[in-house]
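Hi C.,

You asked whether I'd gotten around to modeling the 197-residue construct. I have! Everything is below, sequence then structure, no commentary in between.
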Amino acid sequence: KVLLLFNILTLLSTKESYARFPFDRYKKEKWDIEHINSQADNFPSPNDREDWLKDVQEYLDKNLSLHVNAEFLIKEIANLLQDKVNFVLLYQKIRGCLEDSEDGDWVHGLGNLTLLDASTNRSYKNSLFPIKRARIIENDKTGLFVPICTKNAFLKFYSKSPKDLTFWKQVDADAYLAAISHTLISFNSTLEEANHD
């Protein structure tokens, strides 16, 4: 409920915008609370591995210039998709290249969670942050509804000085959490003022 309220209050605070939260869609469709940075212990199941690898391969094909080892990883993925062996080793290499190794309690906290429609969330399962980010941007471009705060988080709007759009780090999660807190505290103050009048 906190993330839903955060999205609604964000839209309401933008007085120049005509955007409104689509409550009808929220009520009719299924929504998930999504980890922005995937959890390290969410290893793809045997049934999901091929799709996971294809997502990584597609992302790397489009972003070769961003990653030093991209061409090597693409070749490794192609080999693995043919042989179906050594998934664990390649998985670890990919995570090492595309995901920050930062870990800690923040990964399970509110600063790493966002509201997302269930079909998008389940379509990318255990994907890494840059792949999720690319999917969110693509959905927004094609007109699929992405909650404003979800989009802002994946675009690193809340981060103070986003240097690297490939990783979601604790500093990003902390800035996002601070934005949530600030918005909810401001709303609570407004309610208290209204109750005193």
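If it helps when you're writing up: The mean pLDDT is 83.

Thanks,
B.
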